[in-house]
Design a protein that fits this description.
about 140 residues, four-stranded mixed β-sheet, binds zinc ion
Length: about 140
């Protein structure tokens, strides 16, 4: 067993173990609870945002810290072996993300990123998220 797959497996396990709810579902629940209605995985939008609030043109991505490289986050550390492989792979993800966000903004969408690790503190992320949604709502 190599350390790479062990690390990835443990990341996956962590995601599964955090109850029967995925990070994306958690964000959906927070949004719904606050009276917002949304659509899921709009395939016709760049990057297929996880959650879309069509009315206010808000696209939300719920990003895993490792796969999307959450800068400065403990969960974003590269595995100790095959570091070049992982760096290349993750860098490609990051570049693709950037392109998608840029394209969305060009289409006048508001882009919101929620990082997986932020969901540990539900109250804080809820407050932040709703504040953002309110501000986009006002400017729409
Ligand atoms: Zn993070």
């Amino acid at each position: 067993v190599d350390t790479v797959s062990k690390k990835v497996r443990s990341l996956n396990m962590a995601a599964i173990k955090s109850g029967n709810t995925t990070p994306e579902k958690m964000v959906r629940q927070l949004i719904y609870k606050n009276g917002y209605r949304y659509k899921l995985h709009k395939k016709d939008l760049p990057g297929k945002p996880d959650i879309v609030l069509t009315k206010y043109k808000i696209a939300i991505f719920v990003n895993g810290c490792f796969w999307h490289h959450h800068k400065g986050c403990k969960k974003a550390h590269f595995p100790k072996s095959n570091i070049k492989y992982w760096k290349d792979k993750i860098n490609r993800n990051v570049l693709r993300d950037k392109e998608n966000y840029k394209d969305l903004k060009k289409l006048c969408w508001n882009v919101l990123i929620v990082w997986q690790c932020q969901l540990i503190n539900t109250a804080t992320i809820e407050r932040k998220l709703i504040k953002k949604l309110e501000s986009y709502k006002k400017s729409s």
